[in-house]
Every structure is written in C-alpha cells, then in structure tokens.
Amino acid sequence: MSTPGNSLEGMLTDGRVIVRPLRDGDARDMAAAVGDGEYAVWEPAPGPYTVARALDVVHEYEQGLRKMEKAAFAIVEAATGEFVGSAVLLAGPPPMATGDDPLPVWLAVPDAVEIAYWVRQEARGRGFASRAVRLLALWALDQLGLRCVWLEADPNNIASLRVAEKAGFVREVVLPDHCRDAASGEPHDCVIFARLLGEQWPAADVEQGGSI
Ligand SMILES: CC(C)(COP(=O)(O)OP(=O)(O)OC[C@H]1O[C@@H](n2cnc3c(N)ncnc32)[C@H](O)[C@@H]1OP(=O)(O)O)[C@@H](O)C(=O)NCCC(=O)NCCS
Questions:
Q1: Burial class, 154, CB count within 10 angstroms (exposed 0-12 / middle 13-18 / buried 19+)
Q2: Burial letters for 46-61: b for 16+ Cβ neighbours within 10 Å, e otherwise?
Q3: Is the CB of 157 under 6 A from ligand 1?
Q4: What contacts 195, CB < 8 A, 6 or more positions away?
Q5: Is 208 in the pocket of ligand 1 (CB under 6 A)?
Q6: Which of 38, 64, 160, 207 lies 20 to 30 Å from 182 when distance is taken between CA atoms?
Q7: Is the CB–ligand 1 distance for residue 160 below 6 Å?
Q8: Half-sphere exposure of residue 113: CA atoms within 13 angstroms, side-chain side
Q9: How many angstroms separate the first and last alpha carbons of the chain?
Q10: CA distances from 63 to 30, 45, 58, 72, 183 (A)
Q11: 12-209 is classed in which CATH architecture?
C-alpha cells in the first residue's frame, strides 16, 4: 500500500480504489455528482451544488486541515481515474462522549477521528466506500498514530452499516435519538462503530483488501 505518510499528500490505494485529498480540479466532478436534493458528505445543505460552491468546500477543508480539524478526500476508481465519491475525517470523539450516554470509555480519547462517506449514485454497490473507508482508517491509525476512528450510522441505512462492517469496524453502541435526519431534522437512533489502534483486522476485510 502506498501512503501519504502523515502529510496528507499523495494517495492511498488498494489497486481498485484511490483515496487522495480533494483538490480544486475535483470541483466540477463534485458538483456533477451530487443530485438535486441529495446530501453529500461535505456539508448539511442538499444539492445541487454549483462548481463554485464545490470549490468553496475544497478550500474550507484545506483550511480545516491546516487547523488539524477536518480533511476531505476524493474516492477515485483506480482503473478509470473516475471520481466516484468522497470521504471526510473530522477530528474528535463523538460529542456525547462527555455526556451521560452509555458510551464505552475509550470513546473519550482526544486522539480520535470521525469518518463519513458518500458515493455517487451510479457508482454504488461496487465496493468503493468500504475499500476507501478501510484505507483511510488504516492510514489514520497506522500513519497518523490516532487511537480511534469512529463513525455513526442510521440503523435504517443498511448500505452504511454494511460499509462499516466490510471496512472492519466494530459495532459499539446504539445511541437513542442521537442523530437528526438531514432533511426533516427529526431525531433518530444512531449506531456508533469504531476501529481502535492495535486491533486485528477481521478475516473478511483481509479478503476484501486485496493488495494491502
Ligand atoms: C453508504 C454508501 C456510501 C455506500 O457506498 P457503496 O460504494 O455503494 O458501498 P459498498 O459498495 O462498499 O458497500 C455497500 C454494501 O451495502 C449493501 N447494500 C446497499 N444497499 C442495500 C440495501 N438497501 N439493503 C441491503 N444491503 C444494501 C451492498 O450490497 C453492499 O454490501 P455487500 O458488498 O455485502 O453486498 C452510499 O450508499 C451512499 O453514498 N449513501 C448516501 C450517503 C450515506 O448514507 N453515507 C453514510 C453515512 S456517513
């Protein structure tokens, strides 16, 4: 596996998918990929996105990266170079880790990062998200030296739950009414998954991981 080290430059790949930081040249693809009323991973506002807005998003994340707060990545099909989706890393433990919710103690660690992901409609079901999430999680734990990569998923979002499982994350806890539906604002339950530094990758994702 090639890695960008801890500089967030370069790329990650398993031979089928490439993950690299978003750049200005992605703005056109980003805008084209997000359908009308669809929620991409970069912000709470739904599409459609203009190229100008997508460019702003790239720059916002570049600034976030300089502050070590957040980073955004393109998910690219290795064989074609096609932009198929995006993933973001957001520094910090789950917000509820300091509250009264029954979260595992380790979720309070400061050196944790959340991962979120999105794949354009036409490219779904081909393993892009699970491969990309796995690559980024491995990199964050092995190269950045973080202790925990976590994600939250709606229990009804079967595809997202499968991505978490296929990427080797462990289902930790269900938080009642923790998340809000992006469109309606209604609260809903939320499943927290995590990968911890030093954990063995399950056999299933070793099979999926190919050349890693
Ligand atoms: C979730 C999402 C990123 C998955 O991307 P993807 O590239 O299609 O994911 P993968 O191909 O790696 O895996 C998807 C898995 O979900 C399964 N799946 C998808 N829809 C499903 C459904 N309705 N019922 C059951 N399984 C489903 C697929 O079969 C696949 O599992 P498998 O390989 O065991 O068959 C994509 O659907 C998406 O962008 N959704 C909108 C944004 C979102 O919900 N993001 C997650 C929240 S952070």
A1: middle
A2: ebebeeebbbebbeeb
A3: yes
A4: 137, 141, 148, 149, 150, 167, 168, 169, 170
A5: no
A6: 64
A7: yes
A8: 25
A9: 5
A10: 18, 19, 9, 11, 27
A11: 3-Layer(aba) Sandwich (3.40)
Q: For residues 144, 104, 212 and 11, what is the CA-based torsion angle, rounded to 10 degrees?
A: -40
Task: List, for residues 149-189, the tens digit of each pLDDT value.
Answer: 999 999 999 999 999 999 999 998 888 888 888 888 899 99
Structure tokens at 28: 């056109």
Computed from CA positions of residues 87, 195, 109, 9, in that sequence, does the dihedral angle turn out positive or negative? negative
Which residue puts its alpha carbon closest to atom 34 of ligand 1?
A: 162
Rounded to whole angstroms, the Cα distance separating 192 from 184 reads 21
pLDDT digits (tens, 9 = 90+) for 96-128: 644 565 566 556 667 899 999 999 999 999 999
Distance CA 168, CA 187 (A): 27
Backbone angles phi, psi at 29, to 5 degrees: -65, -40
pLDDT of residue 203: 52
